[in-house]
Amino acid sequence: MASERYELNMNMKCVKYMIFVISITFAVVAAMLLSMAVAIGNLFDDFQSFIDSHFFVPPNLLIAIGIILLVIALFGCVGALKESTAMINIYGVLLLSVFVLQLAAAITAFVMRGQVENMVRQKIFDSMADYKQVEGYRNPIDMLQNTLECCGVDGYSDWLKFLPSDENTMEYPETCCAAPPVEGECMPRDYGCYSRLSWLISQGSVLIATGTVAVAFVQVLGAVCAFMLASAIRRAKTLRATRRWHLQQSLGIMTKTIDPEYTGMEKSETNVDPDKYLPTSPSVN
Known about the structure:
single chain; mainly alpha
């Protein structure tokens, strides 16, 4: 019994500290996911004129998941230290629930990655077409070309479709120039904006997908450890209650009042058995 109790307590301590370490790790990972999601969200905000609104769903979902994981990690640490079966079970269930959300975010990011090519190309062409007609479109396309150091969609020649030119000269936006124009002549950049912007969006989607999948499978391990700890705590509490009950029964028997018939302090009037010896019986000597 003692060896079994010792082994059970040691197993429970091992699982408890494992849960505590996993919860702390989740807190660190959640903070990293949160910072990554905020960075990707800010990057998408910078180029929001060229990105459809549904592309903001994965980073926003990842921000929510990071905040939820921070709360769950704190909940798990408290539950492990208090050895609360209910809190540990809730901790495991919450981890599995967030696991489903993370898989949804990862799948969404992977699916959207395949939509980047057509979306980016069309958005940049639309902005270039309205460059002269609509004043509001100048800032986004100028910001895009200036930030990514690019010109046009696939190259500077794309501006031939939208800006006036003749056999000798062609007009470019100033942000297309690799260096400040000299005497009105601009040396356009060689790289188009499509490849650079689509790479940024694709890499953001890949980071979201791979990050959430990696953390999600670690969460499954955390949930399994949580349920193991809850089972160990339940067994330990049952064993302690059983030992306490046996101890109480033993103490009850020891402190129970014994019938004076067997004390030998006084003669028993109910002793009718002639073969039963009492201290008051006549001596045989």
